[in-house]
Design brief:
With 144 residues, the protein is mainly β. It is 10% helix and 51% strand. The protein has helices spanning 33-39, 44-50; strands at residues 23-31, 56-62, 65-71, 76-82, 86-90, 96-104, 107-111, 116-122, 125-132, 135-143. The termini are far apart.
């Protein structure tokens, strides 16, 4: 019988991001945004405003360090993080939360108490899939 072992996470000093996420990305498609925002407890006003907006996301990647700036006509949010290190982020409605982002098979994976986000590059698109409970939100962007 073959024994199974859990894969140990790499330390941030040896971990590198396999994909280049750097650039300016314009969201062109979002599936199930409203359902996702409701399940994570976003206020109704935020849900109404957000569903009519397609953000621009600017990602600056320097090795394992990232700065992600999300721009809309209503707000600009900046999140900086290093792979494998816990960081504080802010939701669209201003609530703060902590998460750790890791790289796995060229994907950026962030896990919090409320949701899991997987960001990956598929062809010319950046696809982010966020799952919270039974709701899954998918955002597709193109580099501009």
């Amino acid at each position: 019988m073959i024994g199974l072992s859990k894969r140990q996470p790499q330390s941030s000093s040896t971990q590198t991001a396999a994909m280049d996420f750097s650039g300016t990305w314009k969201v062109y498609s979002e599936d199930n945004l409203e359902g996702f925002l409701k399940v994570v407890g976003a206020p109704e006003m935020v849900i109404k405003m957000r569903k009519n907006i397609k953000p621009v996301v600017v990602i600056e990647q320097n090795g394992t360090d990232f700065t992600c700036t999300t721009k809309t006509p209503i707000y600009t949010k900046v999140h900086s993080f290093s792979l494998g290190k816990e960081s504080e982020m802010t939701a669209a409605d201003g609530r703060k939360f902590k998460c750790t982002v890791r790289e796995e098979n060229g994907k950026l994976i962030a896990e919090t108490e409320k949701f899991t986000s997987v960001r990956e590059i598929k062809g010319d698109d950046m696809v982010e899939t966020i799952t919270a409970g039974i709701e899954t939100f998918i955002s597709r962007s193109k580099r501009v």
